[in-house]
Amino acid sequence: MAQSAAPTAGVPAITPVSLKALAPWAVFFGMLMLVLLYFVGAEQGAISVIAGEGVHEWVHDGRHLLGFPCH
Ligand SMILES: [Zn+2]
Question: Which keywords does the record carry (predicted)?
Answer without folding.
Answer: Membrane, Transmembrane, Transmembrane helix
